[in-house]
Amino acid sequence: MSISLAVLIILYIIILLCNKKMKRFFDAFFFVITPYVFIIIINNIFMSIWGFNKISDRTIWVHILCMCVFYLGSIFGQSLSKRIRIKPLIKPISIKDISYNRLFYLGIICVIFVSIGKSLLIRQYGFTSFLKAGDTLKMPSLFNHVELLLYPINILLFEQYLKTKKKRLLVIILTSCILIFSSFVKYHIISLFLCTFIYITIKYKKYIAKIGIITLLIIVLAFAGNYMINFSANNLTASSKFYINHLWMYIAGGTINIDEGLKYAESALSKTSIIAWLWQMITSFPSMFTNKLLGFRISNYAFSTTLPKFSIGISSSNVISIIGSAFIQGSYLSFLVFSFFWGWIVQAIYASIKKRGEESIGLMLAGCIFLAYNMLSFFSSFFVLSNPWETMFLAWILPKLLVSIKVTRNQPIKSF
Questions:
Q1: Under a CB-based contact definition with an 8 Å cutoff, are residues 391 and 370 in contact?
Q2: I need a labelling partner for 177 at 20 to 30 A (CA). Which of 186, 269, 294, 359 fits?
Q3: CA dist 383 to 201, 253, 376, Å?
Q4: Could you report the per-residue pLDDT of 244-259, keeping only the tens digit for each?
């Protein structure tokens, strides 16, 4: 074991022990940084023997630096969330205000609508071609937007299922998962399960171990199933080694690639800017509207999409994690500033949904989705896409569609 890896493990354990002493073990640091630590440990101790490139000492030290500064930022974010309370412009909607009958029927409507969109694709291309094409076929925009609404609907339906165990809820939940899975874009179904996992673990600690194991198993099965269906449709077969290689390439590629990505960025082939990258993330959602209505995007910067495929040993990958992207595109100073504010923002949002999640279910849902995509930051920066932002926006407005006119805070909610 290298010195850098030993330091990473020791500092990670120390920070977790400090968090446990402060009674905030499950926080932004745990959800965001833990995947990076385990990726580095597993890759350099086990998967490098399998044939993957080792993560270099320089990359490990970059993660150590980010981990420490991120944690300092999270402490500041936690402290600030206790002192500052912003009064919402619109009266927040509590979980007690929601009509679960409306939620159930809205779920049915969305499932039917998205099913129509999938059916149109199958009718146009044929079922076999639909399976063969994988993630290259897209439904018309309206169907895609409704599909994103299924994310927060599914979270609330699953919570209600845990309380009532009603099978008709499970039918809607499973159908939604199948529809989202059938886009064959792996992060779509993975992010859905992560959003649900974070929401349940924040509100119901007794389910942490059980839901955590089930979520991990489902994600692995969904990942393998994606390839299995595509291979079956194309009359291809693959060994178990293929699935292990591609699963680890998906998980660890964004971290293994950091060294090669830095070399590429330092060459004359690529011009990078951390400011342009951050601006791209901030403007990705409004760019969706300007592109549709006016024909232009607010930001045309595309760091992640212009990278070539780098060798990671057994396979190749062109993705870079958020930590790697921030380090590659900036100086040490800008990287430290980014890491600090990243920790601050994520922890402030985490603390806010823990404190005010019950009184503002829209904030709770949007915050859990935000945390899920930060948890996936080891793969790449999904915030350069409009989907995460749109899903958060839909999650925030969903409760406003579920409040019955007759419902008040003093009246009990009738469950179906």
A1: no
A2: 359
A3: 23, 18, 10
A4: 898 999 999 999 999 9
